[in-house]
Specification:
6 strands; 3-stranded antiparallel beta sheet; about 40% strand; elongated; about 80 residues
Length: about 80
């Protein structure tokens, strides 16, 4: 398993706790000792927006994370 660009951030105050998790790249390889037909079993493919074409400068839109997760928990309400 290969992961790149892992970023986790936790912010906590008296009123809430916020957790952010981002992942830029992810790949699972075949671990067979034999010569596998498919050496890469799963690889996420990021599609660039249509306005970005080959040869142009890459903009921020193409550098977004593959996976983003945000959990925002309130502390002033029980079991939330």
């Amino acid at each position: 398993m290969y992961m790149k660009g892992i970023h986790a951030k936790v912010e906590s105050t008296t009123m809430r706790t916020k957790v952010n998790f981002n992942l830029k790249e992810f790949q699972i390889d075949n671990q067979s000792e034999l010569d596998p037909i498919y050496p890469v079993m799963l690889k996420a493919k990021k599609e660039l927006p249509a306005r970005i074409q080959y040869g142009q400068t890459v903009t921020r839109a193409s550098a977004q994370d593959l996976f983003q997760l945000t959990i925002d928990m309130r502390k002033d309400v029980e079991n939330v």
